[in-house]
Amino acid sequence: MGSLGRAREARGVGGAKLEAEMKIDVALEPAEIERLGTRDLGGTHCVVLDVLRATSAMVTGLAEGVEAICPVTTIEEALAMREGCPGVVLGGERHGDRIEGFEVGNSPFEYRQLSGRKVVTTTTNGTVALRACGGARKVAVGAVLNLGAVTEWLRVEGPERLLVVCAGTFETLALEDVWAAGRLLEGFPGADWTDSARVALAVSGQWKDPLEALLASRNGRVLVGKGRRAEVEWCATESLYPVVGEMEGGWIRSGAFV
Ligand code: MLT
Fold this sequence. Notes:
There is one protein chain. The strands form two sheets. Strands 9-1-8-2-7-10-11 form a seven-stranded mixed beta sheet, with helices on both faces. It has helices spanning 3-12, 30-34, 54-63, 75-84, 108-111, 126-132, 147-157, 175-185, 195-204, 210-216, 218-225, 229-235, and strands spanning 23-27, 44-49, 68-71, 89-94, 97-98, 118-122, 138-142, 161-166, 192-193, 243-248, 251-256. The chain is built from twelve helices and eleven strands. By secondary structure, the protein is α/β, with parallel strands linked by helices. Helix 8 (175-185) packs across helix 9 (195-204). Strand 10 and strand 11 form a beta hairpin. Bound molecules: D-malate (MLT). D-malate is lined by residues 50, 53-54, 93, 96, 106, 123-126, 167.
């Protein structure tokens, strides 16, 4: 049974927690992600956000037919995976640009062309954040593109503990990730929020329009400067896809949540 089926079955038997019992925390920046290895995440659901652009590319790919995506942290790891799994597409970036010898970079538009393929990807922050959540009870890939679907997934799952992980940029916080975290949490007004969650909510309250928030961010401005405004606009399209990528056994596959 797929993840959607399992989640609906859980809801059917009353498995979902009441929203008021849900404890919601947010890892706002990369230093917190580094420390996740020392935390017991066994009872925690994680949603990982790297809006510009890693998780937006993944959500786009999964919605457009990519079979599965394996996030890895190094170029060497990606190359080794191709050795063991010929036919996989290698994707990813360093400093925003495609890695030499890899088929695709980290643009959501490139991920629209990979229907039916398996992708191994390594990016500066997004894939690192996903791998850091490997010990969590469940891990979902979130983006502005699938915020509605992630909200529905969480309502069905009803986790006791939710950690929203903002991937950031190099060592710093990324405004667009914190904004998206807050926007997601707006869907759970009755939950038990940590101070970090309240900070994310305060940020999302600043911009109602996702594109304005993304264009206010440093990453948004850098991408516009590189002639990639269309990608920023794409990544700001709220709830375009009814799809949640769930990571299990190192691979991300999609489940549909309408
Ligand atoms: C990352 O994973 O660090 C980013 O998404 C970088 C990018 O897409 O340029």
